[in-house]
Design goal:
It comes from Pseudalgibacter alginicilyticus. Residues 276-345 form the HTH crp-type domain. The modification 4-aspartylphosphate is found at residue 52. Residues 3-119 form the Response regulatory domain. Pfam families: cNMP_binding (PF00027), HTH_Crp_2 (PF13545), Response_reg (PF00072). The protein has helices at 11-23, 34-44, 60-68, 87-95, 108-142, 147-157, 238-247, 249-275, 278-293, 305-312, 316-328, 344-348; strands at residues 3-7, 27-31, 48-52, 78-82, 100-103, 159-163, 168-170, 178-184, 187-192, 198-204, 209-210, 224-227, 231-237, 301-302, 332-335, 338-341. The chain is α/β, with parallel strands linked by helices. It has 3 domains: 3-135, Response regulator (Rossmann fold), CATH 3.40.50; 147-252, Jelly Rolls; 276-349, Orthogonal Bundle (Arc Repressor Mutant, subunit A), CATH 1.10.10.10. The strands form 4 sheets. A 5-stranded parallel β-sheet has the order 2-1-3-4-5, sandwiched between helices. A 4-stranded antiparallel β-sheet has the order 6-13-8-11. The radius of gyration is 39 Å and the shape is rod-shaped. The protein starts with a strand and ends with a helix. The mean pLDDT is 84.
Length: 351
């Protein structure tokens, strides 16, 4: 039941109006003058106020000014109820912020209609405000600020793909359609050099992103990606991915940092291939695969000698000789495709 504060100094009119409003299913609080009305409004916070203008102590204009200046009462709908019907009186009341103006004498139906329309307006505005607040909260909640948020977006909205070991995910020259998150397994990125030799450019493991050839142009991939074990990927279209970046600048900065880290790793890899010894290249490659493939350091690495040689940038025969030397030194154990690191610290210190 809605509550009306009725401020009216005429006791007969006040009681009569109050009775009729209560018959219309309203709860009515009565005040005999403006001062009492202001106190009751602040204390009871009614749903709507109906107020006479000409009253002792404090007139209706004064009541409206005081309630408008109070943060708890300034939004309560306010209807003037008065015998003052001159245009200037009506305009003054409306300019002060009144919602409506009912002239005396009045029919109770006119007053009830005015009250209901003002309460309906307030209800609509409150619903809109609630919806807006929900929308704002949703937008804030949905904002993707970090790489972890982005990966959660992949999980919630991406398309799942599965590939068997040695299956090609995309080829060099294919056009970019998806950015991928690895849910399970590992992949290698590789290119074929002019001499026909495969060069492995990167390895990606579970929880890594790959496939971002260009963020601004629709360019084909410049490398081939192959599963080096059974993999499960989640893909988000490159169009959707660009929309995410456009709307989340903090994420763009994190992604720039990721690309910067990738660039540093590639430079380090190139330097190692150019200047490191064969044993050092072999040791570094085993450690790289161990990092990408293993969940536990003691687990054997299941990888072909050819893949190891391609990542190390050396001939397969040269790699096999280095592995044989490591086996003799007790650093690794090799059986078929399985390589198990026995002394990881010694492997890290090979020069």
């Amino acid at each position: 039941m809605k509550t009306i504060l009725l401020i009216e100094d005429d006791v007969v009119l006040r009681d009569c109006t109050s009775d009729l409003l209560e018959l219309s299913n309203y709860k009515v609080i009565k005040a005999s003058n403006g001062k009492i009305g202001v106190k009751l409004a602040k204390k009871k916070l009614p749903d709507i106020i109906v107020c006479d203008i000409m009253m002792p102590e404090l007139d209706g204009y004064g009541v409206l000014k005081k309630l408008t200046n109070n943060k708890t009462t300034k939004c309560i709908p306010f209807i003037f109820l008065s015998a003052k019907t001159e245009f200037n009186d009506v305009r003054k009341g409306m300019n002060l912020g009144a919602d409506d103006y009912i002239s005396k004498p009045f029919a109770i139906k006119d007053l009830v209609d005015a009250i209901e329309s003002r309460l309906a307006k307030v209800a609509i505005l409150q619903e809109l405000a609630t919806e807006n607040n929900k929308l704002k909260k949703t937008l804030v909640d949905d904002e993707i600020k970090t790489l972890n948020d982005l990966k959660n977006f992949f999980d919630d909205n991406g398309t799942v793909f599965t590939f068997n070991k040695d299956e090609i995910i995309y080829r060099q020259g294919d056009h970019t359609n998806y950015i991928y998150l690895i849910n399970k397994g590992a992949v290698k990125c590789h290119q074929i050099q002019e001499q026909g030799k495969e060069l492995v450019t990167a390895l990606y493991k579970e929880d890594d992103l790959f496939g971002y050839t260009s963020f601004t142009k629709k360019t084909p991939h410049d490398e081939t990606v192959t599963a080096i074990e059974d993999v499960e990927l989640t893909g988000v279209s490159s169009i959707e991915f660009n929309k995410i970046l456009n709307n989340n600048h903090k994420l763009s900065l994190e992604l720039m940092q990721l690309l910067s880290d990738d660039l540093i790793n590639i430079k380090s890899q190139l330097l190692e291939k150019a200047y490191a010894s064969v044993n050092r290249k072999t040791a570094a490659t085993i450690l790289k695969f161990a990092e990408k493939l293993n969940r536990k350091p003691e687990d054997p690495i299941k990888i072909s000698r050819n893949d190891l040689a391609n990542v190390a940038g050396i001939a397969t025969e040269t790699l096999i000789r280095a592995l044989t030397e490591f086996k003799k030194q007790g650093i690794i154990k090799a059986e078929g495709r399985n390589i198990k690191v026995l002394d990881i610290e010694k492997l890290k210190n090979i020069n």
